[in-house]
Design a protein that fits this description.
Length: 318
């Protein structure tokens, strides 16, 4: 499959690389890493990475503006569904390649390269580079490693396999870079966020069957001086709590007039439940979008039911 992807990349002079809306480091690093690798390998090609991104990701690199998609190849990283592609539609391109690690949702109409067991889209781009004549250097390696580290939550998730470590090991050997700066870019945060984390720990509600949730209203965000994206992302800080199997942040986004939910699990499968609330994602890391806190609490009830079944099936508790 990688040889086929390389063959298609070689064929097109203009290549646009997109990824999902609500960008995260894996989405952005996979598109920028791939863009820079193709540019390095084929200096005469026009290669662009598109989409919008918050200022806090500026350390990853600069995105491009493209008005004309004619005669171009589209590569979409880290995105399973058409509606979540940020700034591009496969219909406007001659051909589309998908490179993704989410469970399949929509066929983009071209080459679908999907490995749901991979830790990250960056892992797949790293493997693509290793398996073909695409070029790399320490900067590109660092970008791709950043996305991989972020999406695997520092190799915490079960998706971190021998394949993941094998790829990382090869990159560190071939294209050495400073690992500690990767971690400080990803994890340095203002004191205001740590104070909000304390608030979440103290006020998280835990249901009978182990769902931990917190409503982070606009008022709370203002009180702590933290924006909604950073507040929602704190879901990643609550792994390994004995009493909790599934946990979620329910965050009001006053600018968009919606409520964004980030869900994580230590056992029950959650993406099917998220799909019922304008969401989706991975089995154990999903998200959803709703318009009221009531609907969010309905989702909590469904997750609680899934936890009850999981506890029964796995003979936990008691
Ligand atoms: P997050 O909690 O935002 O980090 O998202 C966790 C996973 O769920 C990622 O793979 C996202 O792409 C996916 N996800 C988040 N929100 C949505 C949504 N509204 N619809 C579909 N997938 C989502």
């Amino acid at each position: 499959m990688y040889k086929e992807i390389y063959r298609i990349i070689k064929k097109y002079n203009k290549i646009v690389i997109a990824r999902h809306k609500g960008v995260d480091p894996d989405a952005m690093c996979s598109q920028i890493g791939l863009r820079d690798s193709i540019r390095k390998s084929f200096p005469k090609k026009e290669v662009y990475a598109i989409g919008s991104a918050p200022q806090r990701f500026s350390y990853i690199g600069k995105l491009d503006k493209v008005d004309d998609f004619s005669n171009a190849l589209l590569i979409v990283c880290d995105t399973p569904d058409l509606k979540r592609i940020d700034g591009a539609n496969p219909k406007d391109f001659l051909y589309t390649i998908k490179i993704d690690h989410h469970p399949f949702i929509d066929d983009f109409g071209g080459l679908e390269y999907i490995v749901p067991s991979a830790s990250s889209a960056c892992e797949l781009v790293m493997e693509l580079i290793l398996s073909t004549r695409l070029k790399c250097d320490s900067n590109i390696a660092k970008t791709l490693f950043t996305g991989l580290v972020s999406d695997s939550n520092r190799f915490l998730f079960p998706s971190s396999s021998s394949r993941t470590f094998g790829i990382v090991s090869k990159y560190l050997k071939k294209y050495p870079f400073d690992i500690s700066s990767v971690y400080s870019n990803l994890y340095i945060r203002p004191l205001s966020e740590i104070r909000l984390k304390g608030y979440i720990s103290t006020n998280m509600i835990v249901t009978d069957n182990g769902v931990g949730y917190i409503d982070i209203t606009e008022d709370i965000q203002k009180k702590f001086g933290v924006d909604s994206a950073a507040a929602g992302n704190m879901v990643n800080d609550f792994n390994f709590i004995n009493e909790i199997l599934v946990w979620l942040t329910i965050t009001e986004d006053a600018n968009l007039g919606l409520i964004r939910i980030s869900i994580r699990s230590r056992g029950p499968v959650i993406n099917k439940i998220a799909e019922g609330h304008n969401g989706g994602g991975h089995k154990f890391a999903s998200g959803a979008k709703v318009t009221t806190f009531e609907e969010a609490h309905e989702l909590v009830k469904e997750l609680d039911k899934a936890c009850a079944e999981y506890i029964k099936d796995n003979k936990l508790g008691g």
